[in-house]
Amino acid sequence: MLDNMIFKQLMKHSFTIPVEVTYPNGKTEKYGNGAPQVKIKVNEKIPVKDLLRNASITLGEAYMDKKIEVSGSLQMLINSAYESANSFLNNNKFKRFLPKQSHSEESSKNDVQSHYDLGNDFYKLWLDKTMTYSCAYFEKPDDSLEEAQMNKVHHILKKLDPKPGSSLLDIGCGWGTLMLTAAREYNMNVVGITLSEEQYNAVKQRIKDEGLEDQAEVLLEDYRELDHLPFDYITSVGMFEHVGEENLGEYFNTISRYLKSNGVALIHGITRQQGGAYNGWINKYIFPGGYVPGLNENLTHIIESGMQVADIEMLRRHYQRTLEMWTDNFHKVLPEVRKMHDDRFIRMWDLYLQACAASFESGNIDVIQYLISKGPSARTLPMTRDYMYKD
Fold it and tell me: Could you read off the pLDDT of 228-244 as tens digits, one per residue?
């Protein structure tokens, strides 16, 4: 009885939109003014002690197991919970620190492979043709996802102001679109590194298919173990979220070590303006070992590594739109996904995509591009930002 009362109180204060909740006993309660925008059906009692232990894991698993069902937009519901000051997502009484996580080279490899080695065929179903699994950049309102992803690649490379024949290291190269564009269209000599065997094999084949063997190389190894000469430029997209809080300093020190004097790097990743954070459910089911660093945290590490900041750009709204387009794509190919994965996996992945979109929409997380240089900031770059936007 006490669990039911506490759970009802949580629901009552957790949303900024009108919500209808049907409880296991069949009784329905409406919270907020106006017609319900989202309906929640609680099929089984949710123990409050589990919510107190970790609300994100408890509710995420309940949704995966159909103990909770949602009619309406998951993104709208979760965004509403983030925006509510009294929500269990914001109330310190219901927040818990996670145990310290390992980020040894072996654990990092296992973490990456558990997510990215789900199979290229799975990602091909709902990513665009570029196979780019990071925030796109929408220059125009009607940009397609493929156009926006290529916008992002060029936006990053233009920020570097790269010279033909120069060298580029792409840390966490994904399926190779950025590094191969740099080789093909900017005449750069590129090296990409990844811990995903699926990505490594795909990029290696792309290099061969595009005849770029003299300009491009992909390596399957930890970013900390690279044995190459320093590079003129470094890019790293969606990477530092995986290295762990305790290894962020080493990550930026490694970038500094791999850069030539006055070299330039563009680091693009998910960042919290409010400070670093873990998410229990994301860590358990989607990105093992994940940690979203705070803005001040990253800036401190950049400076302590002997580099300086030349430019910072926030792309939060771009990632919200990217995730919304991924969600639409994912829903369109559900018959094909069901041939690969069960219903629990599908509910898990759908929750992941929509919860992340809601987190960006609410400002709970951001995605930021850090343009940094080894030595005085932007010594080798043009005096104004105009060069970043020229064709």
Answer: 789 999 999 999 999 99
